[in-house]
Amino acid sequence: MIAATAISMSRTTDRYWQSVLRVEIERSLTQKAQLFASRVNTDRTHRIEDITSQEGQHAGARATVIDVNGKVIADSQIPVAALENEGRRPEFGTALRGETGMDTRKRNGIPVLYVAVPVSGGAVRLAYPLADVEIAAAHARQVLLLGTLVAVFAAFAISALAEQTIARRRSSSP
Questions:
Q1: CA distance 148 to 153
Q2: Cα atoms found within 13 Å of the Cα of residue 118, Cβ hemisphere only
Q3: By the number of CB atoms within 10 A of the CB, which of 8, 66, 69, 98 ranks highest?
Q4: Which ranges constitute the DSSP H helices of 43-122?
């Protein structure tokens, strides 16, 4: 009974914490993308490549800037010549229509969260790998498993002690 309850609680807790962590990452990445967009719109003293590189570093994410046609102008991790028309990506499509766009896709087997925000003459995007969510969930599962094992051991110990106490009282009763 304890094991079945623990497994059920583990799955529920795992889904809940993954959801909470993901919402927090989405919120944070959206704020960082908005700051990135603001800088692209206002900073006229630095090259767009430098801004993109700096903002990607500050956000701990890959940063990309495209023009209104979807052509990549700058990217913090991949040479511009190696990139296709990123404007076709769902998050950029939404940003080019004037709204914040968000999408999750796998890149090299790892889920990546993409958040794009409109800027004057195009859009900016931050891409953050969600491997941290998987790592945190695995750690939470390990802690929950250890707690379950301790609870099962304690339940057996209490049960054995209760059985001995009852048996002694029965043998000492007249």
A1: 9
A2: 11
A3: 66
A4: 48-59, 90-96
Q: Is the pLDDT of residue 56 over 70?
A: yes
Distances (CA, A) of 148 to 6, 18, 139, 143: 6, 20, 14, 9
Distance CA 86, CA 67 (A): 10
Please, what's the b/e burial string for 3-42 (b: 16 or more CB within 10 A of its CB; e: otherwise)?
A: eeebeeebeeebeeebeebeeebbebbbebbebbbebbee
77-114: pLDDT as tens digits: 999 988 887 889 999 999 999 999 999 999 888 999 99
Which letter does DSSP use for residue 89 in this model? S
Question: No. of H helices and E strands in the chain?
Answer: 4, 5
What pTM was computed for the model? 0.74
